[in-house]
Write a structure and sequence with these properties.
Keywords: Methyltransferase, S-adenosyl-L-methionine, Transferase. This protein is α/β, with parallel strands linked by helices. It has nine helices and 22 strands. The protein has three domains: about 60 residues, Nucleic acid-binding proteins (OB fold (Dihydrolipoamide Acetyltransferase, E2P)), CATH 2.40.50; about 200 residues, Vaccinia Virus protein VP39 (Rossmann fold), CATH 3.40.50; about 160 residues, Beta Barrel (OB fold (Dihydrolipoamide Acetyltransferase, E2P)). It has a seven-stranded mixed sheet, sandwiched between helices. The chain is globular, with a radius of gyration of 24 Å. The site of S-adenosyl-L-homocysteine has 18 residues, from helix 5, strand 17 and helix 7.
């Protein structure tokens, strides 16, 4: 049977593919179906046909998989924020472990690598310490709102995959703690009543652009960042004052201003509106000052588990030189500093390096130093061979030249931290002639999404 666009096919989901979609085979032909899981039997409608595979959506679920649970969030299945709420948590963890293991098999051509069971997240809801809600002048209507008199000209919430200008008017997001949802509601009410217009993602006109919330888990305090298209203190200051009045938990309100068209909630300029200038949180024994635009792991408790794994794999005695590639704001360097002779962090972003230095000072750490610049250029300036190299690249993985330099440098041990199993596997392919991949520990920082963080331990071949 050949599969055609718009055709309805009956099929069984036999696996979950990387990217989180269910996989079915129609006479051997692969069909990927969003929002399905192994064990589902369904009628699927083909929406896209390519040479080697097709994509389909659920027309009717004929027999639900035993792995299914009722998603507690009403936006589940529509919202792009998290797509796996309908799969029970133990199976989410197992799918993630398999994605890591299969990426190593298929991309790195490595059989039999020890990939441990995924370390679960301590919390499966309310775990995110940072949320970004978009404003839009076009609201995505939920099925029960279609044909009602719901106001479609305003939305503050999360995106629906496949449309860029329509946004859900999200009442609450279960990935953030509940206070965040009360703040969201308050801001929505204010923006709706305001005489300043909401931003249009297609027209690129309007004032209110994003609401970013950050939560300090350690102190249970919040930062509110209101992102607008232009400067207008009269519009934003009353909102800041209102939030400071209404919520004892809100300790900081800032206004980022951006005229850029891109959908990134980072301002060219920041105005401090109320309270403290930064938020303070803690991972393990260390405190970190977080400003609106600085990078910080989005699951604070999960970051603790991740760094514990890094520490265990690093297995330091106290006299080692450690080099930390892609060090960001220095969190891993700081985590390892007490057990090493010295740590050198390399990072591209100037503000991250400034934060890293500040974080060392405030945590009383004096054996870390940081080098600003592209690792492609800065790594070759490191003269000594480190005893341990920590590598925590962005999603895209490492640059080919950097991988070559790492092999030339030849540190005894490497701890590789990754948020993308596919690029991790690609980098392992480059390292495997010189290094043995001893073990990999997946750590779940993002329940109900298919994202997975992993820590890999490599030892140089003799
Ligand atoms: N290790 C940190 C952050 C990792 S995120 C933590 O755990 O918090 C990856 C970091 O790599 C980002 O801070 C990014 O700015 C940095 N980066 C990306 N490309 C880079 C490059 N070519 N050279 C140096 N740093 C880079």
């Amino acid at each position: 049977m050949t599969v055609k666009k718009k055709q309805i096919v009956e099929c069984d989901v036999i696996d979950v593919a990387f990217g989180g979609k269910g996989l079915a085979k129609i006479d051997g032909f692969a069909v990927f179906i969003d929002q399905t899981v192994t064990g589902d039997r369904l009628a699927a409608r083909i929406v896209r046909k390519k040479r080697n595979y097709a994509e389909a959506v659920v027309q009717e679920l004929l027999r639900p998989s035993p792995m299914r649970v009722d998603a507690p969030c009403p936006y589940s299945g529509y919202c792009g924020g998290c797509k796996w709420q309908f799969i029970d948590y133990p199976h989410q963890l197992e799918f993630k472990r398999r994605h890591v293991s299969e990426s190593l098999e298929h991309i790195a051509m490595m059989e039999g690598v020890r990939v441990h069971p995924t370390l679960p997240s301590e919390r499966v809801f309310g775990y995110r310490n940072k949320m970004e809600f978009s404003c839009s002048d076009r609201r995505w209507l939920m099925p029960h709102e279609l044909g009602t008199d719901a106001d479609i000209g305003f939305a503050l919430g999360l995106h629906v995959p496949g449309t860029f200008h329509k946004v859900l008017d999200t009442d609450a997001c279960l990935l953030q703690p509940d206070t965040g949802n009360r703040i969201l509601e308050s801001v929505r009410r204010y923006m709706r009543q305001s005489d300043r217009p909401v931003y249009g993602l297609r027209s690129h006109e309007g004032f209110w652009r994003f609401l970013m919330l950050r939560h300090s888990v350690d102190r249970d305090r919040w930062m509110v960042n209101i992102v607008t298209a232009s400067e207008d203190r009269d519009a934003v200051q009353p909102l800041a004052d209102l939030l400071m009045d209404q919520f004892t938990e809100v300790v900081c309100v800032v206004n980022n201003i951006t005229a850029r068209r891109s959908g990134v909630a980072i301002g060219e300029r920041e105005i401090h509106l109320a309270g403290e200038p930064v938020l303070t949180d803690r991972i393990g024994d260390f405190e970190f000052e977080i400003s609106a635009n600085s990078f910080f792991q989005t699951n604070t408790r999960g970051a603790g588990r991740l760094y514990e794994t890094v520490g265990r794999y690093a297995d330091l005695r106290g006299d080692e030189t450690v080099v930390d590639l892609y060090c960001g704001t220095g969190t891993i360097a700081i985590w390892l500093a007490a057990k090493a002779r010295r740590v050198i962090g390399l990072e591209l972003v100037e503000s991250a390096v400034a934060d890293a230095r500040k974080n060392c000072l405030s945590n009383g750490i004096d054996n870390c130093s940081f080098i600003l610049g592209d690792i492609k250029d800065t790594l070759e300036n490191i003269e000594t061979t480190p005893d341990l190299l920590v590598i925590d690249p962005p999603r895209a993985g490492m640059h080919k030249d950097v991988l070559k330099q790492v092999c030339r440098m030849g540190p005894e041990k490497i701890v590789y931290v990754s948020c993308n199993p596919a690029t991790m596997a690609r980098d392992m392919l480059e390292l495997k002639a010189d290094y043995t991949l001893e073990e990999v520990q997946p750590v779940d920082m993002f329940p109900h999404t298919f994202h997975i963080e992993s820590v890999a331990r490599l030892v140089r071949k003799t």
